[in-house]
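This is your field. Have a critical look at both lines of this record:
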Amino acid sequence: MTKKLLAIALGTAATIGMAHAAPPTFYAGGDIAGFKSKIEDKSGIAPDVSGSAKATSLRLRGGMHILDWLDAELHIVLPQDKEYSSAGGSNKVKTQVFGAFAKPNTNVGPVNLYGLVGFAQSKMDFSGSNISGSETQSGVAYGVGVQYPFTKNLSGSIDYVQYLKKSNFGGAGIDVTNTAISAGVLYTFK
């Protein structure tokens, strides 16, 4: 139900604003992301395989500047296979993320401050002695960031995004939190 309400609210805001806005401007970019999949073993079955898989990954993103204060943005975090626990053998996870966000923003001097609110889907491939298999889950995602223009078309950004927080992920008795701190560049097509 909350997904439908959010979609209706964003669609309404975009529709109302487009009547008064200039034609949309598109942008694309890439980031180096410090991506973290935190796994908390809540199963109660020994050994406890809790841990964090920390990977340096590439995040691709693109978007559309709809209004002076609102963008729509898509994220793709490319998968990296990393160990999150060595309890009972090597336990690895490979995580890939797709996200769609509304990006409200405001200029503070030359800097643009922005928030991200939307939905993301995490596909996680587990391999190890205790948990193995693939599972895909989605949920509310959010973040904050700052963007600085270098030229008319090129800007740099830094942000933090929580892509997923799920209890009993895939019914496996684990809690999963996927987050990223990213820095990169965007090119605006003007």
About this structure: The CA atoms of residues 108 and 156 lie 15 Å apart. The domain at 2-189 is CATH 2.40.160.20 (Porin). The helical segments are 2-18.
